[in-house]
């Protein structure tokens, strides 16, 4: 019997590919979980509008739980959501898309253990560039939606390709953006019943990070 799992869903490539691999490895993703900002408008990490996260979930034929939170209350809100979803869907695992940041894994394992779930990280300790190339070869289509000041706003809205990855590496940017250099939005993949049509409009800078406004 497959393990029933909640997916910590960012809307980006890593959580998406983790879901794909987990689905092939004896896990059944049954619900997505994303934490929005205090106003419930965009995701805390990637700046993706709630409406687009909803569209991704619809394309996957899965429910999504959207929780509004400040950074201060993030952990408690996340655990409360895990507990509620575990009870509602009879879950035993949580799926996460981290690759090699030990502090992230420690946090995920801790919050899961507090609600009697087991954290599963299908991408863990894989080669970063190998992973992102594997995602592209699997037909995943992603758009860069936020990036650091080293990259600058010119990369916002661009589709991730092998040529673009080479360009990023020439700038000293990690191919997978695992250090937070950039974040993506998945617009199509093997999990989706249909692709998302999303356009990037105006760009904005918040502290040392650039974000693009996304519209359906």
Strand order of the largest sheet: 3-2-1-4-5
Q: What's the helical proportion of residues?
A: 25-40%
Major β-sheet annotation: 5 strands, parallel
**C-alpha geometry:** globular
Rg for CA atoms = 16 Å
- Termini separation: 38 Å
Give the percentage of residues in beta strands.
Answer: 25-35%
The H-and-E topology, N to C, reads as EHEHEHEHEHEHEEE
- Poorly predicted runs of 5 or more residues: none
Number of strands: 9
pLDDT averaged residue by residue: 95
The computed structural class is: alpha/beta
Total number of helices: 6
Task: Describe the overall structure.
With 216 residues, the protein is α/β, with parallel strands linked by helices. Helix content is 33%, strand content 26%. The radius of gyration is 16 Å and the shape is globular. The termini are far apart.
Quick structural overview:
The chain is an alpha/beta fold and 216 residues long. The chain has 6 helices and 9 strands.
């Amino acid at each position: 019997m497959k393990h029933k799992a909640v997916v910590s869903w960012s809307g980006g490539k890593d959580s998406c590919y983790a879901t794909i691999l987990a689905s092939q490895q004896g896990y059944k993703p049954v619900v997505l979980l994303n934490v929005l900002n205090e106003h419930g408008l965009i995701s805390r990490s990637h700046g993706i509008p709630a409406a687009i996260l909803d569209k991704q979930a619809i394309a996957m034929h899965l429910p999504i739980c959207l929780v509004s939170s400040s950074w201060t209350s993030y952990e408690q809100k996340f655990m409360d959501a895990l507990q509620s979803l575990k009870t509602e869907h009879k879950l035993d695992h949580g799926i996460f898309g981290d690759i090699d940041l030990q502090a992230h894994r420690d946090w995920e394992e801790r919050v899961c253990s507090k609600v009697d779930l087991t954290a599963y990280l299908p991408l863990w300790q894989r080669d970063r560039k190998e992973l992102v190339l594997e995602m592209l070869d699997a037909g995943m289509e992603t758009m860069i939606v936020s990036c650091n000041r080293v990259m600058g706003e010119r990369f916002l809205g661009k589709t991730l390709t092998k040529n673009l990855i080479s360009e990023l590496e020439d700038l000293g940017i990690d191919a997978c953006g695992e250090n937070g250099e950039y974040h993506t939005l998945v617009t199509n993949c093997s999990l989706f019943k249909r692709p998302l049509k999303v356009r990037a409009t105006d760009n904005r800078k918040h502290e040392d990070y650039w974000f693009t406004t996304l519209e359906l």
